[in-house]
Known about the structure:
alpha+beta; single chain; 2 domains; two-stranded antiparallel sheet
Amino acid sequence: MEKITLSAYTDKSFARPTGKDLKVQINPKTFSLEKGIKYHENEQAGDNSASGVFNRYDGEKLSFDIIIDCTGVIPDTQPTDTAYDKVTELEKLVYDYNGDAHRPSFIQVVWGKLLFKGQLSSLKTDYTLFNSDGIPLRAKVSVAFANFVDEKTAKKEADKHSPDMSHYITIREGDSIAALCQQIYGDSTLADQVAQINGLPGFRRIEAGTQILFPHLKKG
Length: 220
C-alpha cells in the first residue's frame, strides 16, 4: 500500500525541492482537513446579529498522527533503531531551520489523491513503549500543517470573492437577499436595488432555486 510521503522544499512556490523526503512506517487511520472563513465584525449601529461581513477564506489545515515503531515488527527497521532516531529524522525534515530558505522548509504531503502544500504549524511527540534501558521504541507524533498560498494566488482568491466582483448566487431555503447583501457588500439596505436589477417585484419571499445577480455596487 502507498505510504504518506513528506517532501521538503526551499521555496514557497514548491519549485526547488531539497531532495529530502520521508515515507511514514504506518499510514494513519485518519487525517483531518480543516477549513475556515474570516469575517469582519459587524459594526452597524443597532445591529446585534452575530453574523459578520465576509473578509477572506482562512488557510486550510491538515493534521494526522505518525506512528513510529522500532520493536522489529515493521519491515526495514534495524535492531539499533530507536524512536528517538526516527523522530529526529522527521524533525530535521519538517521542523529544523533550513539555511537555504532562511526558515523551516516548506512541506508537501502526498498520499493517494491527497496533495497538500504547506508548512508545519505544530508537532507533538508521545513516547509510548520503552526497552529495559529506558530507550523509547514506539512513539506517536501528532503533526499539523497550515497550507501556504503565495501572495499572487491569495490576491486572485480574494478578488474572486470581493464585493468589487459580480456574483451569481442560487437562493436556497432560508436565504434572503437582504442577508446576502449584508454578506457580500456589508450593507443589507442594497437588497431593494439588487431586486430591481434582477427584475423582481421586491426582495422578500424569493423562491428557493432562483438565481440572483449581485453586481458590483457601492454602498451609499
